[in-house]
Design a protein that fits this description.
41% of the residues lie in helices and 13% in strands. Helix 2 (72-79) packs across helix 3. It has two domains: 1-41, no CATH class; 44-135, no CATH class. The radius of gyration is 20 Å and the shape is elongated. It is an alpha+beta fold.
């Protein structure tokens, strides 16, 4: 198993820390992947873009339910966004609660990106779990 190593520099003025890792593209961004057994408290696999979109979708849903806006078209116009984009984001409110939780805590599968979730997906929670092999 790979381990984290620390050693003094030749002149003794710095500590050199070696951490085994690899880089992987995830949702258009590079993510650091650590080998099994190596964990750093500050390392986060959370897809911030996706987490923010999930939060935005639920905010928009509350605005629609409260009557603050009456249609997706009105919401899109107010946000200066395309109707189809707003509709795709709003579909995130149909995700199973445990999948939303995994997105927010960064434990979602690597394939679960905005690009993937912008495509049509099943509304049945069990089928979602099967599709993304979650749960």
């Amino acid at each position: 198993m790979s381990t984290i190593n620390a050693e003094w520099s030749r002149d003794g003025t710095e500590i050199i820390v070696t951490i085994p890792m690899s880089l992987r593209r995830r949702s258009g961004r590079k993510s650091i992947i650590f080998p099994e057994g190596v964990e750093l408290p500050s390392a986060s696999a959370r897809d911030e873009t996706l987490a923010k979109l999930v939060a935005k979708a639920h905010l928009w849903l509350r605005q629609l339910e409260s009557g603050k806006v009456t249609t997706i078209s009105e919401l899109a116009e107010r946000e200066n966004l395309d109707n189809s984009y707003v509709a795709k984001v709003m579909r995130l409110t149909l995700l199973a609660p445990d999948i939303v939780e995994r997105i927010l805590d960064g434990t979602q599968p690597d394939v679960m990106s905005w690009r993937e979730l912008a495509k049509p997906f099943p509304v049945e929670w069990e089928r979602q779990r099967e599709r993304w092999r979650v749960g």
